[in-house]
């Protein structure tokens, strides 16, 4: 982690002013509650908290059960917040509730702004890059609903001097082997227009040969492109890097010998994406399988060693190439503030009943059901039933993306693993590590998606900033 550094007494005046505004907004909310005690201030707090708890319990019953409990859960999800609103209106407390929401909104906004100004995010270092002479780009016309064709990526790339290898959706192809052949033929840059699973396969070849790698945001979600700040609405702008680019050094993940650029998922999500029907009916397949995966008999649980420390009996485990900003955002919208910190992010989830689901909803990352860590090595096994010598499942873009898993060793115990969204099976123990700075990424100088993620709220730091006290922080 390194030595700490001191800030605070010399913090910018703007940061101190914003910190004080945040504290004033918090005090304002407390004052509103005190003044409203005789008019239902406690009802506002109690009803709001009860609404959150009931809604979380409803989500759990809807997801983890079938039949009547699922119906009750669905009703709670809709009726709990509606009931809170009706109660506030009936009791004449809507104005108190609105003022409290506004006070906390101002407090959080000012607190994040103060923290950002007191300790600006260290930008990732970009270096000047020469124009590649023989770039080779692999494009999957199927990815992202046909973005390659819609945005004219082949024509645009060829105009800029790149050789394009256009995959045939009807003919399975080993994209890693195509990339290796391109290198053997003299390519001085490799690029991909396709999903993150394909990106990872070609990125591994580029890293092995120390060649620049070009990300073209032609996939469905484009998580890597988002964290690089690339334009996900117009993938043709990614090609500007060929003529006006700069280079970033980022980390590359490794899961039992296979590269990953974003995440490796174990447990519930990995089990669901293995099913062939998941491609055509994601929500229906998940709802059908969740009860058996969460509370059914013989449920598989995950055990792991995180830098040697045990993390046992998890229902789901997410290992990411660098930590995501907020562990409370367990969704596809989360972002990684950096891709070069040299650490894996680790997120473990264990929720056994409605009470734990409510605890997770109320306390977030402080809940006992959520474990948030960072590490250099994660080793995953299972504590429940596992399958031996199972047949490998084929990924969503199998063949085209070259992500079909090779059969495991005969007799080896394998578990489902989702690598950058691709459904695979791997023999245990599955080991995740990181190759720091292994990948040279060529990006355009103009990247509209580059944003500084808001810092996590630390009220102790806010107090220190507001009163000019010395703040000790780890270097970034």
Summed over residues and divided by their number, the pLDDT gives a mean of 81
Largest sheet: 11 strands, mixed
Radius of gyration, in angstroms, nearest whole number: 25 Å
Strand content: 15-25%
The number of helical elements comes to 13
* Count of DSSP strands: 20
Low-confidence stretches are 1-10, 328-332, 388-410
Helix content: 25-40%
Q: What is the distance, rounded to the nearest whole angstrom, between the alpha carbons of the first and last residues?
A: 9 Å
Structural class: alpha+beta
Any idea what the shape is? globular
Write the layout of secondary structure elements.
Elements: E1 5-7, H1 13-35, H2 41-64, H3 68-91, H4 94-118, E2 126-128, E3 135-139, H5 147-150, H6 153-159, E4 163-166, H7 175-184, E5 189-193, H8 196-208, E6 212-216, H9 223-228, E7 245-255, E8 258-260, E9 263-267, H10 268-273, H11 282-295, E10 302-306, E11 309-314, E12 316-321, E13 344-349, H12 354-363, E14 370-375, E15 378-382, E16 387-388, E17 413-419, E18 422-427, E19 430-444, H13 459-466, E20 471-473
Parallel strand pairs: 3-4, 3-5, 5-6, 6-19
Antiparallel strand pairs: 1-20, 2-7, 7-8, 7-19, 9-12, 9-17, 10-11, 10-15, 12-13, 13-14, 15-19, 16-17, 17-18
């Amino acid at each position: 982690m390194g030595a700490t550094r001191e800030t605070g007494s010399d913090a910018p005046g703007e940061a101190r002013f914003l910190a004080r505004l945040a504290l004033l907004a918090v005090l304002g909310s407390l004052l509103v509650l005190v003044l409203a005690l005789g008019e239902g201030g406690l009802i506002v707090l109690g009803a709001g908290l009860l609404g959150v708890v009931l809604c979380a319990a409803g989500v759990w019953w809807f997801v983890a059960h079938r039949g009547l409990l699922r119906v009750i859960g669905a009703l709670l999800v809709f009726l709990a917040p509606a009931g809170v609103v009706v109660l506030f209106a009936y009791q004449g407390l809507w104005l108190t509730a609105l003022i409290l929401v506004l006070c906390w909104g101002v407090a959080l906004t000012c607190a994040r702004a103060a923290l950002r100004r007191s300790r600006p995010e260290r930008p990732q270092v970009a270096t000047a890059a020469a124009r590649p002479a023989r770039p080779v780009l692999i494009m999957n016309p199927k990815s992202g609903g046909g973005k390659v064709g819609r945005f004219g990526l082949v024509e645009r790339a060829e105009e800029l001097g790149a050789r394009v290898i256009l995959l045939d959706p009807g003919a399975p192809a080993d994209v890693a082997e195509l990339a290796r052949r391109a290198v053997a033929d003299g390519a001085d840059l490799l690029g991909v227009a396709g999903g993150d699973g394909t990106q990872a396969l070609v990125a591994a070849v580029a890293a092995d040969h120390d060649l620049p790698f070009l990300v073209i945001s032609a996939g469905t979600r484009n998580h890597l492109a988002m964290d690089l700040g690339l334009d996900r609405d117009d993938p043709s702008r990614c090609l500007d890097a060929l003529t006006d680019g700069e280079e970033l050094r980022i980390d590359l993940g490794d899961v039992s010998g296979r590269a990953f650029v974003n995440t490796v998922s174990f447990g519930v999500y990995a089990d669901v994406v293995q099913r062939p029907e998941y491609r055509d009916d994601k929500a229906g397949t998940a709802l059908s399988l969740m009860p058996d995966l969460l509370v059914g008999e013989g449920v598989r649980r995950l055990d792991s060693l995180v830098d040697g420390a045990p993390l046992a009996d998890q229902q789901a485990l997410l290992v990411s190439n660098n930590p995501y900003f907020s562990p409370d955002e367990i969704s596809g919208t989360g972002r990684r503030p950096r891709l070069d910190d040299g650490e894996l992010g680790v997120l473990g989830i264990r929720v056994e009943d409605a009470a734990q689901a409510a605890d997770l909803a109320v306390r977030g990352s402080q809940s006992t059901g959520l474990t948030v860590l960072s590490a250099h090595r994660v080793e995953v096994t299972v504590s429940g039933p596992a399958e031996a010598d199972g047949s490998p499942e084929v990924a969503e873009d199998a063949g085209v993306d070259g992500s079909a898993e090779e059969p495991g060793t005969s007799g080896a115990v394998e578990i489902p693993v989702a690598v950058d969204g691709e459904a695979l099976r791997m023999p245990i123990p599955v080991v995740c590590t990181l190759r720091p700075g292994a990948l040279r990424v060529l990006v355009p100088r103009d990247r509209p998606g580059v944003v500084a993620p808001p810092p996590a709220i630390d009220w102790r730091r806010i107090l220190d900033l507001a009163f000019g006290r010395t703040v000790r922080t780890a270097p970034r």
